[in-house]
Amino acid sequence: MKKIVPWLAAIAVLAVVGGGLYGWWAVDLRWRPHTIKTHQAEIAKALEGAGWVSPKLGPNKLYMVSYRSCPDCIRFEDEVFPKLQAAGVDTRVIMIARADHNGQSKSTPPERATVAELWINKSWKLYQDWAGVKPATAWTAPGVPAADGDTARTAVVDAGRNLVEQLRPLLKDNGVNFAYPTLIWWDKKGVMRGCACEKAQTYRYVLKELGAS
Prior knowledge:
The protein is an alpha+beta fold. The chain contains seven helices and five strands; from the N terminus they run αβαβαβαααββα.
């Protein structure tokens, strides 16, 4: 029995430590962004060359890759964009018209038309007009040239889809599994950071690192 007691005590200590570590992971570590340690130049070049739109604020910038009806993207914009913009962060939105999947269309003709127009002319006002229409399916893209049937504009839509496929492996090498919204930014020390910020628990880290908390 005397030999068993120390083992039981050790097991109890390990259980407490393990429970504490799991609790730390569950409420903190799992939600933290990742440092982009590899492919920084390639990722930055891809983002900068994409058809992003923004309010053109301060030098600090955050890229968000999104699609119009993405609920997690809409929530991030509604809850976090005002705080970031108030802190002078240039919120750069890259809209994607998702590719078809298993024969099912993941985008609409007005969506494809608007994505092409945003990439070509980078109009923040057009983006705001589009984002302001609820539900997203009510948007008819008034005055926006169609992308379907236009070879050049269809190529622009495809460029957005190609961007996603380009980013997936580059981000995965840095621990970020691409999802919507995927966010990339630089913290106060100039370190490239990223996350697939689908959950609200991630927001506080983004705000803190960009000086908007």
